[in-house]
Model the fold of this input.
Amino acid sequence: MSENSKEDMSNKISQPFDGADSDFKAGMTEGVTLLTGDPKSAIIKLSMPMIVAMLLFSVYNLVDGIWVAGLGPDALAAVGFVMPVFMILIGLGNGLGAGVNSTISRLIGSKNKAAADNAGVHSLIFVTVLSVIITIPLILLLEPIMVAMGADSATGQAVIYGQIVFAGTILFLFTNIGYAMLRAEGDAKKPMYAMTISAVLNMILDPVMIYWMGWGIAGAAWATIISVSIVSLIMLYWFFVKRESYLSLRLRYFSYSKKILKDILGVGIPASFEFFLMSIVLVIINLILVDVSGTDSVAVYTGGWRVVMFAIIPMAAIATASVSVYGANFGARRFENLRTTLNFSVKIGILISLITAVVTWVFAPQITLLFTYTPESANLAQFFIGFLQTMCLFYPFVALGMMSSSLFQGTGKGVTSFVINLFRNLVFIAVFAYVMGVVLEMGQVGVWYGIVLGDIFGGILGYVWAVLYLRVLIKHEACINSA
Done:
């Protein structure tokens, strides 16, 4: 690249949310047109492919749990003990993805393609360096972490499973960043294809590698690594060979920008810590459950929580799609569209969650059979049913929290989203679970109700905060326009 070209790019990047990029219209794709149009239409069209993809991926998680459950309670508990650490990794990828999504969608909304391209290259370089830094410590420190978490008889299997999975750190982080860049430009179909391929491969490889090849819990880990590797290759082909995306991810478009990196990390780090908080809460819940009911209660919580995560997939998909819509409209300073997006996404989310709650409550016994089909786990059936039916009580409030968090992430207010989730996870969920499970001596049932109450209070707090934020934002913009 010539010195003049570099200078031109630097000028465009120095103020990434102001002005229009002359290349914007020339590079317009269907996804970008969708993002910059009607927010209700954008939410529906972006969220539907994501719901399909995330449901399929969650089906894999359920199937994975079913196959692992066949190895006995210790194997299922082992995955449960690894899960909080794995969630930190996935949370890091999702958090950075939220930062990338927010930054790029805001740049697209402000019609600054050069900065959007540069932000994409920044994110790929950053995630590569980060993966190299954290992989080795994750593998080496896993055993003492499992011991500290009270894995007990499940420690050996937890270490085997975790070390294989964490060797693929760069794959998990790269795919999350790739999904985020595609969503940021309004393309929800490619992430759907990639996640579907990953889920189907996992479901095929799980029984083959766990039972047919006789690798046990290590087979479940290798199935995950192989599937995510193949998806990574597919995404590399899309970005660097096929080149159909709005973003141009070439090193020649890279020009270091402190502002772009700050924007990505300003949302990405708080969002990552949100998942870290979830992992801390999982550890706390596991410790409380071990204390009041033993490791079998961890197996119930681990298996049951997979069902909960499956049930809230539609809300999560809508919230994830909304980040791009919020970002594009914020970048374009169409603040009334932010309110429209929040209200519309919350209404859809509540409707879906009510239906989900009823279906889960009615079919809880049938769902439970998936995790208690072996003689070793049959005695857990009544506890699985109780857990699933208790969790139904907070589903309608999930939409409030998720849609509010996506608003703050999309507008670059990552710290606000983090503070809300800090209250939800540590102040509400952890405290209520401890008080009801230990102090009130209600056992694992008390822990379940503590989780429900914590999520309800957290969802309400997030929604009220979002409404007040939008009221101030719109009023401030109106004052500027009338001045």
Notes: The radius of gyration is 22 Å. The chain has a mean pLDDT of 81. DSSP finds 18 helices and no strands in the chain. The chain has one domain: 28-482.
